[in-house]
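Hi again,

Forgot to attach this to my earlier email, sorry! This is the prediction with zinc ion bound. I've pasted everything inline since the attachment limit keeps bouncing my files.
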Amino acid sequence: MSKNTNLDINTSYTFTCNNHKVNDNEVALRPPVYKCSECKKRSISGYSNPEHCSNPFGYLYLIPRLCLDCSNISHKCRWC
Ligand SMILES: [Zn+2]
Ligand SMILES: [Zn+2]
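Structure tokens for the complex follow:
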């Protein structure tokens, strides 16, 4: 799997902690409508949830706490 490794910082999930590495396998299912707790922009997508089960509220998306930009800037895990 070779890809452009230069200038890759915005698309890589380098700062995800070990506890949440597994979440980086999930795919974005919703357009970005959730607020980032750092920059307050609605730039966070809803992700597929491997532990999802039926419930009356509809699909339970996995929602990161930080958008990718903030995660990259602050070097924090976006799921913590
Ligand atoms: Zn943000
Ligand atoms: Zn984390």
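Helices lie at 68-74. The longest helix spans residues 68-74.

That should be everything now.

G.
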